[in-house]
Design goal:
single chain, 93 residues, mainly alpha
Length: 93
């Protein structure tokens, strides 16, 4: 009985080739969307740091209360989180 099962197993395996890997549908569009999102996050981080620096200079020049260092620190923390998320997602993909 085991000889018949072994022969049947070998016959069935001979019928199937190793499948070649294939990208899922719309994978290229999802990768493009991910690249656009990465670009948008980087642009918003650079804009936030630039705006915070300009506001810091304005507050320093006018002698007002300094609230912009918090803005710059939170923009830098957001950039660190975004960079970490990008690294993790690259490792997953």
């Amino acid at each position: 009985m085991s000889t018949i099962l072994c022969a049947l197993h070998d016959t069935m395996l001979a019928q199937y080739d190793n499948p070649t890997p294939e990208a899922p549908p719309l994978a290229d569009k999802l990768m493009q969307m991910g690249r656009y999102f990465t670009w948008l996050v980087q642009l918003s981080g650079i804009t936030a740091i630039t705006y915070g620096g300009g506001r810091f200079a304005w507050e320093k020049w006018n002698g007002g209360g300094l609230q912009s260092p918090k803005m710059i620190a939170s923009a830098m923390a957001g950039g660190a989180v975004a960079t970490s998320a990008g690294t993790i997602m690259s490792a997953v993909i």
